[in-house]
Every structure is written in C-alpha cells, then in structure tokens.
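Here is one record:
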Amino acid sequence: MNQDQLSATFSALSDPTRRAILSRLSTGAATVQDLAKPFDISLPGISKHLKVLEKAGLIERAKKAQWRPCIIRPEPLKEATEWMEQYRAIWENRFDRLDEYLQQLQSKGESE
C-alpha cells in the first residue's frame, strides 16, 4: 500500500460519522437518504462525508437506474489492517513482558 493511500484511509476513518457510515455499508448498499437517517446532519453534509470516503477509495457509488447506491470497498481497509498487524507482535511482546514483571512484583510482595 502506498503511503498516500494509507494516509487517505486513516484520515477518512478519523471521523465517527464516516466510521458509522462504513459500518452501515458493511451490511449492504444504501442510498444517501438511507445513510442520512440515523444522523442529525443535512443531506449535503452526508454527501460531504461520502465524498471523503469515496476519495479515499473506501466506498463507490454504483449507477442503478435513477439512484446511485453507495457500496463499501474493503480493499483499503484490508491494507490498513495489514499495516497495523505488523505492530501487533511488538505490542503483544511488550504486554507479555509487563505481565511477567507484574507477576514478579506480586510474588516478591507475597514472600515478604
């Protein structure tokens, strides 16, 4: 994944409304009106969020007759997850070491 795409993905995901929109789209295609229903945001406001998601490649708008449903594109999310996974082992190792240290402290405290 190129760095610009990764930045665009994380930037788009930084907003809770956009994350909620993606969550809704994970269950299937939806129109702008459908996506706007749970929010106290105008249709133009929702459209702005959709443009950010579309520019980041996280959604696309299909063309079906007179309406353009939005659908999720999971590829950028997969790539972002793969990028984050490389750090999982580091954090798991640090948590394991912390756990060992805390157990040592607890054992030391019980023996006194």
Remarks:
- The radius of gyration is 21 Å.
